[in-house]
Specification:
360 residues, alpha/beta, FAD/NAD(P)-binding domain, 2 domains, 8-stranded mixed beta sheet, 17 strands
């Protein structure tokens, strides 16, 4: 019997496990595929909501707290595992649009550094971009991390520290008795714990027992592509409308992303490939003679106002949820995990848990 069983091995589940194992608790993670192979694997790794002025304070508060710890988290994992998650403070350039004034006001209100760069300065600092005719907003404090490497480092770290993984095993059923969960059925095995935490992303509602109020979480597909390495001077992330470009440390260029309500269909499409490729090649003319060498999709766990559920499930005394982070799973994961564990251990937290309830 474990102290805690986490259902779902994405970034939210893994960092929740990391917080719990620090307390000396015994922790197991149940994952239907391999850890981090769903929405986390498909993510770009931008360590900020792409347009934070669109989001509620509930989202921005856990994003801000997470941003403040990511560099140290990356350094610690690198030191402990030898895997560099590649935290890079590249900054983000937001091209001019109808929201620029709103964005500037948000930056001022939240004391977030910014510069409104004139056209001449843009040409000087970012000569690889297409010719720009209007000033653009530069946010120098936005970092990025490489999700694949982050997941690999976390897997190694957690295994080194005694967390047990049940990979390639779908949780078939939560076994309940009155107001308690008393086990999880995995094939012919029953896994038991004192506490159970659902971190199943878009699949989380399916894991709830029958006749239990379910979180309002649904899948939204996001497709992305990647170009082979090129040499870019002064590389930074660039956002233009709803699309963005992320330069990696090795020179690869990640381009995203679509937003598609297709249920649990995570297949890629030729149309999305062409749209993302054309966007990138127009923004970075140097890419015009290069074809992307990777194309993938993931299912993001959408929730009302993109506000995740981080709370106990009222119907059961030992069931909790940490899910529904939509496009902000990576950036909000450390603070979400910390808040979840403080709730489980009845400890105070910097974040007010009220906005993250199921019955909000």
């Amino acid at each position: 019997m474990f102290d805690f069983v986490i259902i779902g091995g994405g970034i939210i589940g893994l960092l929740t496990a990391k917080e719990l194992q620090k307390t000396g608790a015994s922790v197991a993670i149940i994952e239907k595929t391999s850890p981090g192979q769903q929405a986390t694997w498909a993510a770009g790794g931008i360590l900020s909501p792409m347009r934070p002025w669109h989001y509620t304070e509930a989202v921005n508060s856990i994003s801000s707290l997470s941003q403040s710890v990511y560099q140290q988290l990356s350094d610690d994992l690198h030191q402990c595992t030898g895997i560099d998650p590649e935290w890079v403070l590249s900054g983000m350039l937001v091209l001019q649009d109808s929201e620029t004034n709103q964005a500037i006001q948000w930056c001022k209100t939240h004391k977030s550094p910014y510069q409104l760069l004139p056209v001449k300065e843009l040409k000087k600092q970012f000569p690889h971009l297409k010719p720009l005719e209007e000033p653009a907003l530069f946010r120098p404090d936005v970092a990025t991390i490489r999700p694949h490497r982050l997941i690999k480092a976390l897997n190694i770290f957690l295994a080194q520290n005694g967390v047990i993984f049940y990979n390639d095993q779908a949780a078939q059923q939560l076994l309940t008795n009155n107001d308690q969960v008393n086990g999880i059925q995995l094939g012919d095995k029953k896994i038991t714990a004192s506490e159970y935490i659902v971190c199943g992303g878009a699949w989380s509602p399916q894991l709830f027992p029958a006749n239990t109020p379910k979180p309002d979480i649904s899948p939204v597909k996001g497709q992305m592509i990647c170009f082979p390495p090129i040499n870019i001077p002064n590389p930074c992330m660039v956002m233009d409308g709803n699309r963005y470009i992320i330069p990696r440390k090795d020179g690869r260029i990640v381009v995203g992303s679509t937003r598609e309500k297709t249920g649990f269909n995570a297949h890629t499409t030729e149309q999305a490939f062409k749209e993302l490729r054309d966007f990138a090649q127009q923004l970075y003319p140097e890419l015009s003679s290069i074809e992307p060498d990777a194309h993938w999709a993931g299912l993001r766990p959408s929730s009302p106002n993109s506000t995740p559920y981080i709370c106990r499930v009222n119907s059961y005394s030992n069931l909790s949820i940490n899910a529904g982070h939509y496009r902000n799973g990576i950036v909000t994961a450390p603070a979400s995990a910390e808040l979840m564990v403080s709730i489980l251990l009845n400890k105070a937290n910097k974040i007010d848990p009220t906005p993250y309830q199921i019955d909000r």
